[in-house]
Design a protein that fits this description.
The protein is α+β, with helices and mostly antiparallel strands. The chain has 2 domains: 87 residues; 235 residues, PPM-type phosphatase domain (Phosphatase 2c, domain 1, 4-Layer Sandwich). Helix 1 packs parallel to helix 3 and helix 3 packs across helix 4. It is rod-shaped, with a radius of gyration of 39 Å. The protein starts with a helix and ends with a strand.
């Protein structure tokens, strides 16, 4: 009996040993498998990281190239702005022609689609303000064309005793259409709106011709609006209709305002509404008796306050001349 018990105990012990050895072997095998899998995963992670690093470096190089292109283009546009500005009437030139006058501009982009020109002629002093189709670079190109063609007209009609502003606009239109081949391959919107004013040097009268822009004359705090023709210097669906010239009587102290229609259409203010023609006239009446510098500053404050927090839709340009 004792022998059987001893044999059973030995068998149990041997079974335990065999089980333990088997378990340890299985554990070692599982450990090797896990280590192999871990090594494989680490290798894959390293490969993925290398791929990520490569793509990151490539992306950074690509971004650097894009940034360089952007910087180069921005530098070119700024240079174009300097060239464009040089063709406009400078403040020192403006005061030689019109001792009491101002020009206010707030461009939509770096380069402006608006242009202005003040120039003396034998019998008149000319002031022109134009709004070219588009803003930014496209409008800038048109403005350079427009001011070049306008300078040509001023030179041709320099000695005219009876100047015909309507004829000047019609010639400008023909030249713009020819230059742009409008009506054929050019965009039909290419062209410009323009206010053209001639102040008679003997005083007392101004001549006006407008291409889709108006003139504003303020006498004793009240504005009268002189409407221009409702078609542009450029292609028009109804054809090349004749422009008209209007003559207005002015007195010393009167203010003559030129503006594009962009401010009237600009959304802004607390309600996000349009500035409107009514508000424009009210502003002119409110500032008309102020000093010229104060008028410009008031317009600056009004426009910037109105546009703040809203998207500017176009170049904004206004000019004023006091009759002396």
């Amino acid at each position: 009996m004792i022998t059987i018990i001893i044999i059973a105990a030995l068998a149990a012990s041997l079974a335990m040993v065999i089980y333990r050895k088997s378990t340890e072997a299985k554990t070692r095998n599982q450990k090797k498998i896990m280590e192999s899998k871990l090594e494989y995963l680490e290798k894959k992670i390293e490969e993925v990281q290398q791929d990520v690093d490569y793509k990151r470096d490539a992306l950074m190089k690509h971004q650097a190239k894009i940034q360089q292109l952007h910087d180069d283009q921005l530098a070119s546009i700024r240079q174009a702005k300097r060239i464009q500005t040089a063709t406009f009437t400078q403040d020192s030139e403006l005061t030689k022609v019109f001792p009491e006058a101002f020009i206010f501009t707030k461009t939509h982009s770096i380069v402006s689609g608006d242009f202005y020109k003040a120039a003396p002629m034998e019998h008149y002093n000319i002031f022109a303000l134009a709004d070219c189709a588009g803003c930014g670079v496209p409008g800038g190109f048109l403005s350079m064309l427009g001011i070049s063609l306008l300078n040509e007209q001023i030179s041709i009609h320099y000695h005219d005793q009876k100047i015909n502003l309507a004829l000047m606009l019609e010639t400008l239109r023909d030249n713009v259409i020819q230059a742009l081949s409008a009506g054929a391959s050019s965009n039909v919107n290419d062209g410009m709106n323009m206010t053209l004013v001639a102040f008679a040097k003997e005083g007392g009268r101004v001549l006006f011709a407008g291409a889709d822009q108006n003139l504003y004359i303020c006498h004793e705090g009240k504005v009268r609006v002189i409407n221009g023709d409702k078609y542009p210097v450029g292609w028009y669906i109804k054809g090349n209709l004749p422009f008209s010239q209007k003559e207005e009587t002015v007195s010393p102290g009167d203010m003559v305002y030129l503006t594009t229609d962009s401010l009237q259409s600009q959304f802004g203010g607390p309600q996000g509404a349009k500035f409107t023609h009514k508000r424009l006239i009210q502003m002119f009446e409110d500032i008309s008796t102020m000093d010229i510098k104060d008028q410009k500053q008031t317009i600056h404050n009004t426009v910037y306050s109105w546009v703040e927090g809203h998207k500017q839709i176009d170049d904004l340009t206004l000019a004023g001349v006091r009759v002396i």
